[in-house]
Design goal:
The protein is of the alpha+beta class. The chain has helices at 29-33, 46-54, 98-106, 138-154, 167-173, 196-201, 205-220, 236-253, 261-270, 313-328, 362-387; strands at 2-6, 13-21, 64-66, 68-72, 78-82, 85-87, 114-117, 159-163, 179-189, 224-230, 275-282, 285-295, 298-306, 333-338, 349-359. It has an 11-stranded mixed β-sheet with strand order 3-6-7-8-15-9-14-13-12-11-10. Strand 12 (285-295) and strand 13 (298-306) form a beta hairpin. Helix 2 (46-54) packs antiparallel against helix 9 (261-270) and helix 7 (205-220) packs across helix 10 (313-328). It is globular. The N and C termini lie far apart (57 Å).
Length: 395
């Protein structure tokens, strides 16, 4: 698969060759990570994506067959990349298109398989068109977008979806014929707070009292302590305990957890500096934990679980400890996962997330385009309404 494009005013015409590979193992880690910059989003690192595949979490057997696009020069040198998967379901994506699939199949179409450009099981915004910072080139992004559409046609699939991508790339994809979608998350922003009490001082008195009450019940009343355990300190025994937490909560919430036990060992070995677990202990043993990843100036909360139920312990581990950690380490924000209006009263404010969709069938495309126009207006109105009810003190 190849495409010739104008690389920019200062560059000459260049032949772009796109290689599609089914495995991150076919791409040198150094080559892939060279496209990420100095403080990369942890989820697009070669180590993270490889761990998903090598652990059996994201594989053809689980419905995630790699179709990663690598843009190369004439000598085979990587210029850009796009992580991509061929999927036969819509699980583990957090941008919901089940309604689209049902409607198309009722009309006699075949929605699956489809292409999904994302990080499996990870609703966190980050780069999808990977290029070295400072060397970003519209022609390369456009070439990858064109290559994705060619791959959609070559595989005879219904659609290609690029989810949780930065707003600038999202807007640019409209010119390439992609349909634009928005959704909502809640993120905490560090306004230069010196500690948790400084953060609380900026909240309304009622919200401040509620948070202090929740923390007292979660920790003091239950006799629970919390340790921040870095990846270097996570032993296999501790990973066993955390996986038991994850399995307990995941089995109740999703029916079948997405990640395997081996995944945690792999990221513990390959990404120790970007991994931290908030581990709750009672009576001398771990009873709950929340795993976070660090990068791009952000703490990303991912999975949590427990083997004992305690009031407000989820809020403590996933939201309040994350704020404490971000302040202590000078991080700019905390992203605590998908959805969750209950986060608003705890200092996490609404933000808009973005996805782009290439729909091959003209009739389905028209119907989805109409739906997305209404949905974008609804998301914008809801975010505006929520922003007027933040827990922070009014000036």
């Amino acid at each position: 698969m190849s495409r010739t494009g104008q690389a920019g005013a200062a560059e000459t015409d260049q032949v772009f060759r796109i290689r599609v590979t089914t495995s991150m193992g076919d791409i040198a880690a150094a080559d892939w990570n060279a496209l990420l910059g100095d403080d990369p989003n942890p989820f697009v690192r070669h180590e993270f994506l490889s761990a998903l595949e090598e652990s059996g979490s994201a594989t053809a057997e689980t419905g995630w067959l790699g179709q990663h696009l690598v843009l190369e020069d004439e000598c085979g040198g990587p210029l850009a990349a796009l992580p991509c998967y061929l999927k036969n379901h819509s699980q583990g994506e957090y941008v919901f298109d089940h309604g689209w699939a049902d409607a198309f199949e009722r009309a006699g179409g075949r929605y699956y398989p489809k292409l999904q450009c994302s990080v499996p099981f990870t609703p966190a915004t980050g780069p999808r068109f990977l290029e070295v910072e400072g060397e970003k080139c519209h022609a390369r992004r456009s070439a990858l977008a064109a290559g994705l559409k060619q791959l959609t046609e070559k595989l005879s699939v219904s659609s290609a979806h690029i989810t949780f991508l930065p707003q600038a790339d999202w807007q640019a994809l409209e010119a390439d014929g992609f349909l634009l979608r928005t959704d909502q998350q809640f993120h905490w922003t560090n306004e230069g707070f010196t500690d948790f009490d400084d953060f609380l001082a900026n909240l309304s008195s009622r919200k401040r009292r509620n948070i202090r009450k929740e923390r007292a019940i979660a920790l003091g009343d239950a006799g629970i302590t919390v340790d921040w355990v870095g990846g270097n300190e996570m032993t296999e025994a501790l990973w066993d305990q955390f996986f038991a937490f994850y399995m307990d909560t995941g089995s109740r919430k999703w029916g079948q957890p997405y990640l395997t036990r081996e995944f945690y060992s792999l990221i513990g070995q390959s990404m120790p500096d970007q991994t931290v677990v908030m581990m709750a202990n009672r009576a001398g043993r771990p009873i709950a934990g929340a795993i976070n990843f660090v990068g791009d100036g952000c703490l990303y909360g991912r999975h949590w679980g427990c083997i004992e139920d305690h009031r407000f312990l989820h809020f403590e581990l996933c939201y309040y400890q994350a704020i404490d950690y971000a302040i202590a380490h000078g991080l700019k924000r905390v992203e605590a996962g998908a959805q969750g209006g209950h986060k608003l009263s705890r200092g996490y404010l609404p933000v808009t997330t973005h996805s782009a969709h290439w729909i091959a069938h003209p009739g389905l495309r028209r119907a989805i385009d109409d739906y997305l126009q209404h949905e974008r207006r609804h998301v914008a109105m809801e975010n505006e309404a929520l922003a007027a009810h933040t827990p922070f003190r009014r000036s």
